[in-house]
Each structure stands twice: as structure tokens, then as C-alpha cells.
Design a protein that fits this description.
The chain has 43 residues and is α+β, with helices and mostly antiparallel strands. Helices cover 21% and strands 30% of the residues. It has one domain.
Length: 43
């Protein structure tokens, strides 16, 4: 899971999507790296 931070609102956001991560970065969110690693099984 990728972790991002919005410096305007103080909100943190987590996503596993590369596209969503890249879109938020382009909108001013700060990329903070990997929040955690999951199992990838969906359970």
C-alpha cells in the first residue's frame, strides 16, 4: 500500500493503485513511500 499526504488538509491516503498514486502526486499530494505490504491474496 502506498502512503500519500495532503499538505493542505493534513489527510493521509493509502492506495494499492499505481495510477491513483501518480494522479494524486500530480495534484499536489506528497508521496511518503510504502505504508505496508499485504499478502496479495485479497483476504
Amino acid at each position: 500500500m502506498y502512503r500519500l499526504y495532503n499538505p493542505n488538509s493534513g489527510e493521509h491516503f493509502y492506495t494499492s493503485s499505481n495510477g491513483e498514486r501518480d494522479h494524486l502526486i500530480s495534484r499536489g499530494w506528497n508521496y511518503e513511500g510504502i505504508g505496508w505490504y499485504g499478502t496479495g491474496t485479497g483476504r
